[in-house]
Specification:
globular, 22-stranded antiparallel beta barrel, 759 residues, mainly beta, 2 domains
Length: 759
C-alpha cells in the first residue's frame, strides 16, 4: 500500500503506545526548535488590515515593501507579518480587490518589531486597476494554483437571482460540473466528495440547495474564498483534490444596519452591527417560489405545482478584547424539503428532507510579531432521509453524518528559518446509513464511529530575492483501517524576472470519507456520507503541478498550469453488483492530466477573465477503463463586466465545453426470466448497453447576461438587477431517454429583484 505504514505489534494489532510516542517526539522536537531559535529574531513588521467603514478584517490583502521582494498576504483574521527586514526607510503598500491602495512611508530600525494597523477604503462603484489586479509580490508563501475569490468577483459574473460562490468557482480553469442541476465541483479529475469545503473552518458536507441551483453560502456574508488545487497546506487534510476555504465576513462595527434582497426565487435579510469588544452578523434566506407558484395555479386551476423549498441562516459573533486576541463564533443551519405529495395531491408519494447544521469557533493569539497561535473547533452534521408512504414502504433512505473537529497550530515567522507551521488535528466522526430499494441489495451501516488523528508541519524558506523552497508533512492515523498514513509535500518557487514567476508542487494526499452514489443518477438531491469500509484501503492521490505567471501589465496577468495526477484505491459503489455475494463497494484507480490557462485583468471600465482547460481523465474499476461523467476535454469560460455609467453596469458569461460522456443503449433482448407460458415467448425486454461512457452528448454552450442599476432610497444604497440565463435558448442535452427522448438542461430563465440597505 503506497505511503502507508501499519504500526503493529507482534500480534498484528495496532500499537497505540508506539504511535503516541512518535507523535509526542515530533512535537518535542518542534517546540525545542522554536524555543532555541528565539534569539534569531530580526527586524520585523506585523499588524492587521481592516476596512475603514466597518472595521472588519480583510484576508488575502497583498502587503509588501515597495522596491523589495519582501511581502505577504493577510490571513483570515487580517493579520500579516513581514520578517527579515534590513534597517532603513521603506514604502509600505497594501492592496486588495475592490479597495483603494494604502501607502505609507515607514522607518525600520535594527531589531525593531513594529506593529501597525492598516485601514483600506472600499471603492463604491469602479474598481481601481491597481487594487484589482495589481502586481503580485514574491511571497514567502508558496501558494501553488490558488484561486482567491473576493466578494467583488462574486458580483462580476451573471447569476440566477443572486451571486453564487460555486457558480463563480466553476468559471475558473480546472473546475467542472456534471450538468446545470448538479453543483458538485470536480477539480482536476477528482470526485466532488474529494473537496474539503470549509465555512470559517467548519466542514460542510453537502453545500447545495435545489439540486445545485443554489449553494449553501449566502454571498452577502462572504468576505472571500480560497480554492487550493495543488500545494495544499498540511494544516488541511482528509481530502484528495482541493480545499475550498470560505471566510465569513465580520459584521460592521460602525453602526447597526439591515439589508434585504428580494427576487422571484427567494428573499433574504441581513442584520449586522457592533457589540462590546466586537460585532455580529445574521442572515436568513428562504425560497418562496413554491408559495407563489402553488397559489397562482390554485387560482387558475392549473395542475402545475412546485414541491420544493428551503430555508437557511448564518450567524457570526466576533469578540476582540485587543489587537492581539480574536475569537469568532460562527453557526449555520439549512433545511431542504422536497414534498412529492404536493404534485400528486395525496399521500401516495414520499417526502425528501435534508439539512446541514454547523457550529464552530476560531481563536487566534498574536504571541509576538513572529508567533501566532490558532485554535479552531467545530461540530458539523448532515442529515437526510426519504420518508416513505404507505405504498412505498419497500424503499427508504436515511443518512446522518456528524463530524467534530479540533485543530490547533502555531505559525512562526523567522528570518533564518522562514515560515513554520506546526500543530495537530483530531476529527471524531459518527454516522448512520440505511438504504432499501435503491440497489440490488440494501446498504446498511450501523451507527459507526471513526477517529482521524493528525500531526502536521510545514516550512517555507526564502533564499535571496528570487527563490522560495517549501516542504511539509501530514501524518494521519485512520481508526477504521487502523492505518497510519504519511502525506509529504515539496514546493519550489522561482522569480525569473520581476514579471515572470514559476512554481513547482508535488504532494501525496489521503482520504477515508466518501459519498455513496453512481454516475447513472442524473439528478441527485443529496449525497450520503460514510467512511471507507474497513475491508478496503484508505484512498490516496499523488499530484505533480507546474505553474507559470506572467505579469503582462500591472492590471493584466496570465497564469498557466500543467498537472499530472494519479488516484489509488478510489472507492465507489459497485454498479455491477448482480448477486447478494457481490461486494457493495469496489476500489479502482484513476489518472488525470491537464493544461489550464487564465487571463485576468481590466481595461478601462471593463474587467473580467478568460479561462480555458484541456484535460484527460480516466478511471479503471473492475478491470474496465472509461472516462468519468465529469470528463470534459475542452472547457472555456469568458466572464466580462462593463461599467456603462456611474449607475449602470452589464455583466456577461459565455461558456463552452465538450459534451459529457454517457453509456449508449445499443439494443434490447428478451428477458428469459419472464417467459409467457401461454405463447412460449419472452414479452419483456431489457436494455443492452455498449462500452461504458464511450459516447458523448453534443457540445455545450450558453450565454448569460445581467444588468445592475445603483440608486439611493432614503439615502441608503440600493441595486435593481435583471438576470437573463441562456439568452439565445441553446438546447443543451442533459440526457437521452430510452427511446431517444431528449432531456434539456437549463432553459431560458429571467429574474428581477432589488437588494440594498433598508436601515
Amino acid at each position: 500500500m503506497d505511503n502507508v505504514v501499519q504500526v503493529v505489534n507482534s500480534t498484528g494489532r495496532f500499537n497505540k503506545s508506539l504511535y503516541n510516542r512518535d507523535i509526542r517526539l515530533a512535537f518535542v522536537v518542534l517546540l525545542l526548535s522554536i524555543i532555541c531559535s528565539g534569539h534569531l529574531f530580526a527586524a520585523s513588521l506585523s499588524g492587521t488590515v481592516k476596512v475603514v467603514e466597518t472595521l472588519e478584517p480583510l484576508s488575502g490583502v497583498n502587503v509588501f515593501l515597495a522596491n523589495t521582494n519582501l511581502g505577504c498576504s493577510s490571513d483570515p483574521n487580517g493579520y500579516f507579518a513581514i520578517t527579515g527586514i534590513e534597517p532603513g526607510k521603506y514604502q509600505l503598500v497594501a492592496s486588495h480587490i475592490g479597495y483603494g491602495v494604502y501607502q505609507e512611508f515607514i522607518e525600520i530600525n535594527a531589531g525593531n518589531r513594529r506593529f501597525i494597523d492598516i485601514r483600506l477604503q472600499a471603492l463604491p462603484v469602479l474598481i481601481d486597476t491597481v487594487s484589482v489586479f495589481g502586481e503580485r509580490r514574491f511571497r514567502r508563501e508558496l501558494e501553488g494554483d490558488l484561486l482567491n475569490i473576493s466578494s467583488v468577483e462574486l458580483n462580476l459574473a451573471p447569476k440566477l437571482g443572486e451571486p453564487d460562490l460555486f457558480r463563480v468557482i466553476e468559471t475558473f480553469p480546472g473546475v467542472t460540473t456534471v450538468n446545470d442541476y448538479n453543483m458538485g465541483l470536480h477539480i482536476r479529475g477528482g470526485n466532488s466528495d474529494q473537496n474539503l469545503i470549509l465555512l470559517d473552518g467548519m466542514p460542510i458536507y453537502n453545500p447545495f440547495h435545489l439540486i445545485g441551483i443554489f449553494s449553501t453560502f449566502d454571498e452577502s456574508a462572504i468576505q472571500s474564498a480560497n480554492v487550493s488545487k495543488s500545494g495544499i497546506d498540511p494544516v488541511y487534510g482528509n481530502r484528495l483534490s482541493s480545499v475550498i476555504d470560505v471566510n465569513v465576513r465580520d459584521g460592521t462595527a460602525a453602526e447597526h444596519a439591515g439589508y434585504v434582497n428580494l427576487s422571484f426565487l427567494s428573499s433574504k435579510v441581513r442584520a449586522e452591527g457592533p457589540l462590546p469588544f466586537g460585532s455580529y452578523l445574521l442572515t436568513v434566506r428562504r425560497t418562496y417560489a413554491d408559495l407563489f407558484v402553488n397559489t397562482v395555479t390554485k387560482i387558475i386551476s392549473s395542475d402545475i405545482k412546485l414541491p420544493y423549498h428551503f430555508i437557511d441562516g448564518m450567524g457570526k459573533v466576533v469578540i476582540k478584547p485587543g489587537n492581539r486576541n480574536r475569537l469568532e463564533i460562527t453557526s449555520y443551519l439549512g433545511k431542504d424539503v422536497y414534498d412529492m405529495r404536493v404534485i400528486d395531491g395525496d399521500d401516495s408519494s414520499g417526502v425528501y428532507n435534508w439539512q446541514n447544521k454547523a457550529l464552530g469557533f476560531n481563536y487566534s493569539n498574536v504571541i509576538n510579531p513572529q508567533v501566532v497561535f490558532y485554535l479552531r473547533g467545530s461540530m458539523s452534521q448532515f442529515g437526510a432521509e426519504w420518508i416513505p408512504t404507505d405504498t412505498m414502504r419497500s424503499e427508504m433512505i436515511k443518512n446522518v453524518f456528524t463530524g467534530k473537529t479540533v485543530n490547533a497550530y502555531f505559525r512562526y515567522d523567522n528570518s533564518l528559518f522562514g515560515q513554520i507551521k506546526a500543530g495537530a488535528e483530531f476529527c471524531f466522526n459518527d454516522y448512520y446509513l440505511k438504504t432499501k430499494g435503491f440497489s440490488y441489495q440494501p446498504i446498511y451501516f450501523e451507527k459507526n464511529k471513526s477517529l482521524e488523528s493528525s500531526a502536521f508541519i510545514s516550512i517555507n524558506r526564502q533564499f535571496g530575492a528570487l527563490l522560495n523552497v517549501g516542504g511539509g508533512l501530514r501524518m494521519t492515523h485512520f481508526s477504521i483501517q487502523d492505518t497510519l498514513t504519511f502525506s509529504p509535500q515539496l514546493s519550489l518557487g522561482w522569480k525569473i524576472t520581476p514579471s515572470h514567476e514559476i512554481q513547482l508542487h508535488w504532494g501525496k494526499y489521503h482520504q477515508d470519507l466518501m459519498t455513496i452514489g453512481t454516475e447513472e443518477i442524473i439528478l441527485s438531491m443529496f449525497d450520503a456520507w460514510v467512511t471507507v469500509p474497513e475491508d478496503l484501503p484508505v484512498m490516496a492521490a499523488e499530484q505533480l503541478a507546474f505553474s507559470y505567471r506572467w505579469q503582462i501589465h500591472r492590471n493584466l496577468a496570465l497564469d498557466l498550469a500543467l498537472y499530472h495526477k494519479r488516484f489509488n484505491h478510489i472507492v465507489e459503489y459497485n454498479t455491477t453488483k448482480y448477486s447478494p455475494i457481490d461486494p457493495d463497494f469496489v476500489d479502482g484507480t484513476g489518472i488525470a492530466n491537464g493544461l489550464e490557462i487564465l487571463l485576468k485583468g481590466n481595461v478601462g471600465k471593463m474587467q473580467g477573465w478568460l479561462s480555458y482547460s484541456y484535460s484527460l481523465v480516466e478511471k479503471t474499476v473492475n478491470g474496465v477503463t472509461y472516462p468519468p461523467k465529469y470528463d470534459r476535454p475542452h472547457d472555456l469560460d469568458l466572464v466580462l463586466n462593463y461599467q456603462l455609467t456611474k449607475k449602470w453596469s452589464v455583466g456577461s458569461r459565455f461558456v463552452y465545453h465538450s459534451g459529457t460522456p454517457f453509456t449508449q443503449i445499443i439494443g434490447y433482448m428478451r428477458q428469459p426470466l419472464y417467459e409467457d407460458f401461454r405463447t412460449g415467448s419472452y414479452p419483456y425486454e431489457i436494455e443492452v448497453y455498449g462500452a461504458r461512457n464511450a459516447w458523448r452528448y453534443p457540445d455545450y454552450h450558453r450565454l448569460d447576461i445581467n444588468f445592475v442599476k445603483q440608486y439611493s432610497w432614503r439615502s441608503h444604497p440600493m441595486e435593481f438587477y435583471i438576470d437573463l440565463v441562456n439568452v439565445y435558448a441553446r438546447l443543451n442535452v442533459l440526457a437521452y431517454a430510452e427511446h431517444n427522448d431528449t432531456w434539456i438542461q437549463m432553459p431560458p430563465l429571467a429574474t428581477i429583484g432589488i437588494r440594498g440597505k433598508i436601515w
